[in-house]
Amino acid sequence: DNGWMSPMPSLVRRLKFVNKRETRPIEFLKDYEIHKLFRGVKERKNKVPMRLFMALALNCGYTQADIQDLKYEHILFYKGWAHSIQKKRTKTQQPMKHTLWKSTAFMLMYYLHEHPKQDGDTIFIAQNGKPYVQLVAKQREPDQSMTEMKIYIRDNIGNCFRRLVAKVFPTDAKGKTFRLLRKTGATTIRSISTNDSLLCEQLYLGHRPMSVARQHYTAIEIPRLDEVLLELEKHFDLDQYIPKRKQDYPLPPTNLYEGI
Exposed/middle/buried for 104, CB within 10 Å: 0-12, 13-18, 19+? Predict the structure, then answer.
C-alpha cells in the first residue's frame, strides 16, 4: 500500500503550486493607458523611436528581442511601401507573418527614410552605433578570466519604456513593462475573436503549436490572423499618432488605405 501512497503528499503540494500559478491574473494595459503612453512620447531625431517600438509590439506581438532582430529582408513591400513583416520569432524560431497597420507602416516607412540602410542588415541601431538590445559580457572582478565572465542583457528599449511609464504613471508604474504591450495585444484578440481565437493568439505571439496535429499535419492559415489584426487595428486606433509628414517623406500607393 505504501509503495504508491508515499509520493502523494509531494504530488499534492506540487498541484497546489500549479493551481496557484494558473489562477494568477494576467496583467495587461487598459485602452486609456495605451493612449496615455503614446501621447507621453516626445520623439526627436536620432532618439529612441518608442512610438514605433510600441506599435510593433501591439501590431506584431513583438518583444524587445524580436524588434532588435528585425532586418530589412523581413519587411515585405507592396509598390515600395511596407505592407507586412515575415520572420521567425527570436525565442521559439516559429514562423511569424503580420500585416502592418496603417499607423505602424507609416511610422516604419518614416523611420527608414530618416535612417537609410548602412553597413549590416539590422534596422534598429542606436545613435552610438550599437544595438538597442544586446548581450554584454562583463568580468565580475578585474583579474578574472574570460570563462568567469558574467553575461547579461543590455535592454535600452525596456529601459526607455520604464522611464516613459514612470513619467506617465508616476503613482502606478509598478509592473508595467514593455512585455505588457504584447500581453495586451493577445488579451484583446481573445476578447474580440470568438472563432479560432486560440490559434490566432498562437500565430500572433509566435508560440509553438500546442498539438501534434498543428505541429506536423495541419497547415497554418494566415488569412484568419489578418482579419483579427484588422479588428485589433480598429480597436486600438493608433492613426492619430502617425508622424506629421514632411515634404520628402514617402507616400503609400494609391488606394492602399481609405482616405489616402
Answer: buried
